[in-house]
Amino acid sequence: MINVNDFKTGLTVEVDGDIFTVLDFQHVKPGKGAAFVRSKLKNLRNGNTVERTFRAGETIGRAQIENRGVSYLYASSDEHTFMDNQTYDQFTLTSKQLEWELNFLKENMNVNIISYNGEILGINLPTSVELKVAETEPGIKGNTATGATKNAKMETGLNVQVPLFINQDDVLLIDTRDGKYMSRA
Questions:
Q1: pTM more than 0.90
Q2: Do 11 and 21 touch, CB atoms closer than 8 A?
């Protein structure tokens, strides 16, 4: 059990039978009435984000999440196959379970699988990945007033706003948290 006063960003908790990770929290001490903790939680089973308020001092269950290194092998129709790097066991996840992550996954890429009591909840991507630009318009010289950008389609299908000097076949560093351009690789 963990006290809600000890919330930290990234902490995994069990509330009403579901597994959540704490995205944001705020301790509130109103002038009148009891203190409380306002939190923003992400459900790890379905990806929904909820806002929840707890009384100060309330205790909830802590979820022990297991992270294991796996390799992304291949995709076939709606299923994506991964292999455990230690046991070499293979398992599949559906495209629905990996909606956001599919924008960054490439074959033979190493990621971490998130599981709780044997139930696979999803994958953890690295903070940034290197992706090749599949197509983009050429930048026109003298077309920059301040920080002009253009659209670039990456090899995984992700569309990213990039500076005008980026060309097709360039390899870029993309942030997996928000899908934005960071720099050239």
A1: no
A2: yes
Distance CA 2, CA 184 (A): 42
pLDDT digits (tens, 9 = 90+) for 92-128: 988 888 888 899 999 999 999 988 888 888 888 899 9
* Size of the chain in residues: 185
d(CA 133, CA 125): 20
The answer to whether the CB of 161 falls within 8 A of the CB of 173 is no
Query: Residue 114 is which amino acid?
Result: I
Which of 68, 20, 25, 72 shows the shortest CA–CA distance to 47?
20
C-alpha distances in Å from residue 184, one per residue of 38, 143, 146, 170, 174: 39, 21, 19, 8, 9
pLDDT tens sequence across 157-179 = 999 999 888 889 999 999 998 88
- Position 83: which residue type? M
Handedness of CA 86, 115, 100, 10 (dihedral sign): negative
How many other C-beta atoms are found inside a 10 Å radius of the C-beta of residue 165?
11
